[in-house]
Design goal:
Elements lengths: L2 H4 L1 H24 L8 H13 L3 E4 L8 E6 L10 E6 L13 H19 L14 E6 L8 H7 L8 E3 L2 E3 L10 E10 L15 H15 L8 E8 L10 E10 L2 H22 L2 E6 L11 H12 L18 H5 L4 E2 L2 E3 L9 H7 L3 H22 L1 H19 L1
Parallel strand pairs: 3-4, 3-5, 5-11, 6-12
Antiparallel strand pairs: 1-2, 2-4, 7-9, 7-10, 8-9
């Protein structure tokens, strides 16, 4: 029997004992949606709760006002010898449609996992013949996943330097153990031309709208040669003032996505050529401004995901053997290149697409609670197995080293 099986009752009892409080946390966050870097209510709610439950809490962590770190360690924990595992919470909402990405459920699952692992690390039910579980659990509050790159900033500020393994879950319309999560780099493209009267003297102008349209069309043509997991999409934000004026300035926005860092670099270089070619063809100048915090693709730890799958199966969860869906982008990808990580999707109760008003309603419904706690249980038992099984830890770290070399190129 695995060591995690010994502690399954501890985890199950913890989740059952705390389920009402956990639901209250989820409901309070859902009813008070806050956008990126403005999650002050959620930050206060989560940190107060965890501190009251015996966690050591650092608020406004790494100079991010709505980030936090809450930790609990076993009595004989030794830094550098015993594992430190981070379970990540998200709690920012979307404009207009609130928690349509279900981040209230992500926060609940993270806190639930923290409480369950805390009970294991107390070692109150350990029998004489059983070794004590030694380690540290960190519940890490990460703001601004929806476009702000909170985790990118935390990585840059060293928040994961003492973390050995990391995990989180995300609600979805289906279960997906290792979803295809693309890296994304976002840019604004500004063409400068020369205004002229469109009827009286168009030859005097340099048409910045022609340049913007040329980019849009040439990217559409280029898609035939893109790899299956490459994505480029954009909009023209400013196409000119009036039809009888040759536009002297246009602004477009583009998202460029690929799974690996090496593929994203190739795709970006090709798209940049399209930008500059359009400028040359129209006589305009071009300025490309990139976002400060690009997201990388997600490099899943299959060894950790296998543990999560095993413990989910105990609750009747079935993961399809093959999925073809692409899951957009998340700053958890950046974390996955720092430490071995997982980011499974869990079915939240109905086959509804995220970022919709229907999913927003589902995220606040009682129906989603059961599935959220099942995911938390699987994460908690995955943590316990990592704490107690050195062979598994070595396997995870070996896999991480090999995969990172090919992922980053």
């Amino acid at each position: 029997m695995s060591s995690s099986a010994v502690y399954e009752k501890v985890v199950r009892d913890s989740l059952e004992r705390n389920k009402d409080s956990l639901n209250d946390i989820s409901q309070d966050i859902w009813k008070n949606p806050e956008q990126k870097f403005e999650e002050f209510f959620a930050h206060s709610l989560l940190t107060d709760f965890l501190e009251h439950r015996g966690f050591t809490v650092a608020r406004a962590y790494k100079q991010l006002k709505t980030a936090f770190r809450a930790e609990f360690q076993s009595a004989n924990y030794k830094q550098g010898e015993d594992p430190t595992i981070a379970v990540l919470c998200e709690y920012d909402a979307l404009p207009e449609i609130g928690h349509a990405c279900g981040h209230n459920l992500i926060a609940e699952a993270g806190v639930a996992t923290g409480l369950a692992v805390q009970d294991v690390l107390r070692n109150l039910t350990t029998q004489d013949e059983q070794p004590k579980v030694e380690g540290k659990i960190v519940v890490l509050g990460t703001p601004a996943e929806e476009g702000g790159g909170g985790k990118v900033i935390l990585v840059r500020e060293g928040a994961f330097e003492d973390i050995d393994f990391a995990m989180m879950v995300h609600p979805a319309y289906h279960n997906d153990l290792e979803p295809v999560i693309l890296g994304v780099d976002m840019c604004e493209v500004e063409f400068q031309g020369k205004a002229a009267h469109a009827a009286c003297g168009p030859w005097e102008g340099l048409n910045a709208l022609d340049a913007a349209v040329a980019v849009y069309q040439n990217i559409a043509l280029y898609r035939q040669q893109m790899k299956p997991d490459w994505r480029v999409h954009g909009v023209i934000l400013n196409g000119g003032a009036k039809p009888n004026i040759i536009p002297d300035c246009t602004v477009s926005s583009y998202f460029i996505r690929a799974r690996t860092i090496s593929d994203l670099a190739v795709l970006k270089a090709n798209i940049l050529e399209i930008f500059h070619s359009a400028a040359e063809a129209t006589g305009c100048t071009v300025k490309v401004t990139w976002e400060e915090n690009p997201y990388t693709g997600m490099m899943h730890s299959s060894a950790m995901a296998c543990l999560y799958k095993t413990f989910s199966a105990g609750e009747g969860v079935i993961f399809p053997d093959f999925t073809v869906s692409v899951s957009g982008s998340t700053d958890m990808g950046n974390v996955s290149l720092e430490v071995p990580s997982i980011h499974p999707k869990f079915f939240a109760g109905q086959p509804l697409m995220i970022h919709s008003r229907d999913f927003q309603r589902l995220a606040g419904s009682p129906e989603a609670q059961r599935y959220t706690l099942i995911a938390a249980k699987a994460m908690a038992l995955t943590c316990v197995e990592l704490f107690t099984n050195r062979q598994i830890r070595d396997q995870v770290l070996h896999e991480f080293t090999l995969r990172k070399a090919t992922f980053t190129g």
